[in-house]
Fold this sequence. Notes:
Elements: H1 8-16, E1 19-26, E2 29-36, H2 44-54, H3 65-75, E3 85-87, H4 106-115, E4 119-122, H5 124-137, E5 142-152, E6 178-190, E7 201-205
Parallel strand pairs: 3-4
Antiparallel strand pairs: 1-2, 5-6, 6-7
Amino acid sequence: DTVYMPDEELLKEYVLNETGKIYTGNKTSIREKPWNFGQFESCVLDVALFILDMTDMSWVVRGNPIPVIRKVSATVNAPDDGGIVAGNWSGDYTGGTSPLSWTGSVPILEEFWASKTPVRFGQCWVFCGVCTTISRALGIPARCITNFESAHDTDGSITIDVHFQANGELDDLSNDDSVWNFHCWNEAWMSRPDLPAGYGGWQAFDSTPQETSD
């Protein structure tokens, strides 16, 4: 099938393994954050199917991991869809839980299942961990990826641009690009019959809500 992975050891790691580590920090101080994915716990599969229902995804295409993963990446975050986790990078986590306090996906998914409202709060590693859990619950091999000194290019120029005003001061209205200490996203294993030969395998997807995709 389209998520077939021939190596049994890799299947154990990327579908069946319920615990792991997500790497955070910076390029000179890399930290391991233990994470309980818990894809076989309590309400996890119910939530996975519920978020697909939220998107009105046709049953006809739910056997295709390509649109399924796109919907997962869209609904794990709250903007636009009323999804699972609300992001917060302000440092003020009043009215919710600090992203640093989460150690696994299950409490987040249990809270969402009970309230059907976004759980506050998450940052990239939280979105990444929840995506891994949802994907594995659906039988799609998935893993967390961390990049350090992570360039965030907002305008598609494939460069990090800094704009200045005529007087030499920074033009803050135009400076949307940035470089983060680190960033976490996901990869899911699948064939890609919609692309030329050789493009199957690990596919990147990112549920951290920064920009609206197409």
